[in-house]
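Cross-posting from the modeling subforum.

Setting up a comparison between two proteins and wanted a second pair of eyes on the formatting. Protein 1 (sequence, then structure tokens):
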Amino acid sequence: MLEVGHILDDKYEVKKIIGSGGMGTVYLCKNIRLDNFWAIKETEKCDNLNIDILSECNILKNLNHTGIPRIVDIFYENSYFYLVEDYIKGKTLFEYIKDEQQIEVETIKTIILEISEIIDYLHSLNPPIIYRDLKPSNIIINPSGKVFLVDFGISKIYKADSDSDTICMGSSGYAAPEQHGLAQSCKQTDIYGMGMVMYFMLTGKVPFSGAEPLFDENYNGNLNEDFIRIIKKCIQPEIKDRYPSVHDLKKEIIELSIIEKYDKTVLLNNSMGKIKKVKKKFRIKKIFLIIPFFLILLFASMYLLGESGTGNKGDDGINKSNVENNVQSIPEETKETNEQVQNGNSGDAASDNKLQNQATDNTINKQTSDTQPTYYNQHKAKGNGKKKK
């Protein structure tokens, strides 16, 4: 193990130890020439191991994925092999789970879906790259929540014509049965590792054997049964019983998330709130649709009333003129009628006593009506004249 301040390859200064395990030690180092930081993994030399690692690292240098640190340098020093890659600041998944104590299933799904994107990318290459070392300490979550997969030290290229791996490598509790020499590591090997990582996130337990997650008593009673079913399918001992691909696993997790979204009571209550909001918005929209309709009716009514008022005004003018003419003609007609009445009364008074009495009555009526309006006297006289005739 190197001490802080040690210089590697004449340019990397050791600042601190990031982690260590059975496969070696990882250091945080500073490039004293470029003034930047790198993660450097130290592995002890082994002839068979070195050949395998060099072959894989030369391919990993060409990888391009935002969730995979770049491998920028490989070198030997003394009796050790060193792999230089991007330094990712953050917590390992193991640290994250231990700090949080318990995380929601939705958070587990989010993390595992990000991991599946990285693994799916590796498997899509030609030939595919098998990661082979999925475990919480090799998964880093940075401060913004992005997931990274680090430490590609034992990753390998899949060889279709090989029956088994050249060297049996993996992490206890997370390694698939085929990694123990039973068969060659393949895509389902990484699916097995993903299942074990999900088990750890869901229960907080480090699996001591591959069979542990297969038993219901190792899960809490309130955990999602469908999610447990997915984990169990991932870690089946037989390769053929696991998911055919990471894509199929990812698809089922997404579908499960959609089903749960509409199966939660709390979401139903939220949905009712949304419905009320929608109804309220609909009422507002309805009001705004009705208001213009009534305004149109109002303006149309005002227009029609205006047209009608113009026509009536003309008729009123004619009627008013006629009335004025009639009123003016009444005095003249009344005057002529009075003259006739007076002449008639004078002739009849000399010859007939009865007519004289009537004349006397007329005189009395005339005297009585002197106090009434002229218009009334005129019409009274006219009436008397007609009666006289």
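Protein 2 (same layout):
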Amino acid sequence: MARFIFMSIFPPLNHNRGESKSVAMDGFFEEVKRRKVYRVAAAYIIAAGGIIQLSSAAFPAWELPNWALRLVIVLLLAGFPIALILAWAFDVTPQGIRATPSVAAPRTHRRRNVIMLAVTGLIVSAVAGFFLLPRISSAHKIDKSIAVLPFENLSDEKENAYFADGIQDDVLTNLSKIGDLKVISRTSVMPYRGKASNLREIGKTLGVGNILEGSVRRIGNRVRVNVQLINAESDEHIWAEDYDRELTDVFAIQTDLAQKIATELRAKLSPSEKALMERKPTENGEAYLAFVQAHDLQCAVEDLGKLKQSEQLYARAIELDPKFALALARYSQLQSWLFHSIEPTRERRQKARALAEQALQLQPDLPEAHLAMGQSYYYGDNNYDAAQKEFEIAQRGLPNESEVYLALGAIQRRQGKWAESTANFEKAASLNPKESWPLQNLAQNYQVLRDFDAANKTIDRGLKVDPESVGLWETKSKLAIAEKGDLSVSEQAFQAAKSMPMNDEAKLRIAFGRADVFVLERKYQEGLREAENLPDDRLAAIPKALSSKYFLIGFARKALQDETGARLAFLKAKDLLEAQLKESPDSPDMQILLAKVLACLGEKDGALAGARRASELLPESKDAFGGPEIAADVAEVHAMLGDNGPAIEILDRLLSQPSAVTVQGLKVNPIWDPLRSDPRFQTLLQKYGGKA
């Protein structure tokens, strides 16, 4: 019965049961040979191979997209079984194309042979496509990522070393304006200056497929530039060029270099990108050299001495060429940074804004000028909406500038847009893989979100990049305290710092941190000794540093029940802060520190007024990152004054939202000791997973 059903569904093509399969196949192959199908198949394969090779070479040169080559291959593969069927059906004779005459055979044999021929053609095409298409696609794809290594200075003069750096920096800047490329930031390539490094390792470390290296020789008014574009994976030279020009043509060299590299990497160059590249920043060679030196020094963001030198050189460049818009923009950025980190004075803020406005008046479409204006809004006014608009304009003109993505990430977290902020910090890290600052900011995001696993992994990524980063070790220590109340990591950081090369500012930061940790450990005598050894004259150059020293001394002496010594220290801190606030009345950090000092002196009204003023300057509603920090400080003021209720209410709110406040941190910090006997504080700790 089963046999009957099978036979009824699939009736045999040949009812002669005595004929064997081998005989049938012999007939098929004889017919293929007679109809010259083999010959046509071989000719088709040879011709198709030639067409594919020609297309692989020509399509990139014609700037045709990758899918065009894949389409040609698919059409050729699809045509193979059709060619076989046509070869079966027709023959080329002296009289022209004629239908191939059939031999006597059952009709079922003829139908079977055509089906077998078509299936064979389809199988051959499918197998060929399976192996051919991925290889063609991979071979046709160009890695459009590049790192521009520091150019070797072949001249003897130190001044020309800056000149070589300037050419490299300008080539890098021009390339970074091409949105179709991925260009690694200057900070990440500068460690390779003067080092004979393995290009494959550099490419792997920086995450790029191509590396540009070169040399510069300046002799009098002539300059010679030699460059090579190298495939980082294969170490093969893709392209090389020599320039021997007059010094006045240096900008033309930089523009030509960038455009030729874009062509070699098959990167699309928009008209606006091309126009930005071709614009000369200045016609004054001396102004350009001063600018190059200033920019080099500006990159040392934690070295006050170098930042001051940079300031003088920018001023010199602008004096030599008042229409040097790029110098004005970079000078504005420096002023904003100095306002934020060193001297938060009205003069700094106003100067940063004025310089950015001048740059925009001269070149309204200059991306660096919009970046400078954005930083002026961000640091100077806390006007995040206005700053974001400027940064977005800058991003369109500088799509590979990690600083732009850092700025956007910083603004977005203040707006409470944590996912967008995190994505931009990751982008900044990918464009600047040898710089730890983007990763430090990323870890801070995770810390505020209390995702400590992600935060610690991010810090570990950073320490692999820069194991001697004081900021990374500081963040790692804070994470351990916030997550587990663990102070041992801080001790590891201090031990690691002993072998780190660092400037005077970093050494002060380490010493100050040591005093802080002693206080957290309730080793008040050790903390007092460490704080009193900090030099007043050097701390005076850093905002809040000197007043913070005397607040710490006062806190430690009060804990040691030295009321007289504590009061003297607090009064010293009060005098310093009041003097600084005359220069920087809109500093929320100084306002809240003064409020704490007044609370310790028992001046309740003044302390509460200062806390209110700090909250007005940086409210949580306006700043989702900095606002909660000020709110936590306001809670400290209430705790110092004995106002437990308001302090606990603030802490309850902060623990329920993104902030740096954690249960473990509350347990460790002695500043919260006045609350520990309050049942409401115990309830708060239990509510969020801890006990006092």
